[in-house]
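Today's session is about reading a structure prediction critically. Students often jump straight to the picture, but the first step is always the sequence itself: look for stretches that repeat, for charged clusters, for runs of hydrophobic residues. Only then move on to the predicted structure, which in these notes is written as discrete structure tokens rather than atom positions. Here is the chain we will use throughout the hour.
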Amino acid sequence: MTFLKHTGAVWLAVLYLPSLALPLAAENRIDVIRPDAPELAAYGPHRIGVREILLHHADQPDIARAAKGDTLATIPRADRPLPVEIWYPAAADAEGATVVQTYLRDGHTRIDLHARAMVDAAPETGARYPLVIVSHGYPGNRFLMAPLAENLASKGYVVASIDHTDTTYSTLSSFASALVNRSEDQLFVLDQIARQEADPGSFLHGLVDADTTAIIGYSMGGYGTLISAGAGLTEAAVTAREGMWSAPPGTLDQYRAGSAAFAAQHDPRIKAAIAFAPAGYRVGFFDDETLRGIHIPMLFIGGSRDDTVGYEDGVRPTFEAAVNSDRALLTFLGANHNVGAPMPPPEEAFTFDPELNFNLALHYLDFTWDNTRMNNISAHFATAWLDLYLKHDSDRERFLDLIPNSNDGGWDMQDGKPAADHSYWAGFDRRTAQQLTFERRSAGQ
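Below is the predicted structure for this chain, in token form.
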């Protein structure tokens, strides 16, 4: 039996002999940097470790078990499990396997992901690094944005990616849980990472600077990121009682814009944020007034043809309304909702699932853009944004001071230096900045 195996840009024919008892495992690489990748997409100087920790948020409303008519006072309560994958700078002599396992979109097929991070590797010592919290979409899991997480760790960040219980591939049970718990999970993980950093028995001790934190969220993770960044919910959102975008009475009250409860949740340790295709504006959960609550620098990333959260009526007005934030909007022209964040579809995903009634690869793929290409571009801009606002590296400004439309850039390099009329996007090689726009506005604009 012959099948095609994808290795980079080449498809190889592989012959399986009947005598072989086990098929070769797929090599799903999440660390590919294409030759047309922009400059800051390249891995950084640090070796990388990765390990899982399991956190429990005690005595939380169990939204997935709420019955019709339940309110915050009557919903069953339980400890909320939150598996967290942490990528971190590893010691120069660290060792470990470079394969991690996760679940496919179907929630039960386990697959291997191959990368550069070493499982349970000894951490680097002698320096503390900014914390980046990563929050997946609905549904998703903590590995959905693994290419970005690992890449950032190589550049001197500790990256903590959350499995949001009730909305992962394997625990999928409640959209309302995403509404109630996304921001709460993010802030709880921040608290727990800070606590472990202070614990001499933790591998995070002396490694992470939780006072300098960024949050990266995709889709519903982006919804939670907006809340954690300071955008409260509208009154209509808090009181909604029908439809998918509703939660049991009382469970969203703490996010009501302008309330004392929401003001009390402000966390000054969060210094910047990145939101890929954030959900909420299109359905009225945020509006121009509530988004004024964001005061930290925010990078928005969207696809111009996003038909899930909307672009002209979703991502773009979210960016425009955050008027008290230094902010930018990177747009992949022609991209849909799977923009920049999801990893390339694992080889095992290229199959039709009769229960879900779609090909599993469609959960990851964009219909116009290559995932690895988008991941590389996202890593470039995320690196520039976080280095500037968390590490105060002013050199990164040049990668963000761009003409709005990449297609309009002119290339004129003389002896390796840009001539006066050179306007090509910094960090992109000739001909590689295509079908992208980048808009930047200061607070007050």
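Discussion point for the tutorial: DSSP finds seven helices and 19 strands in the chain.
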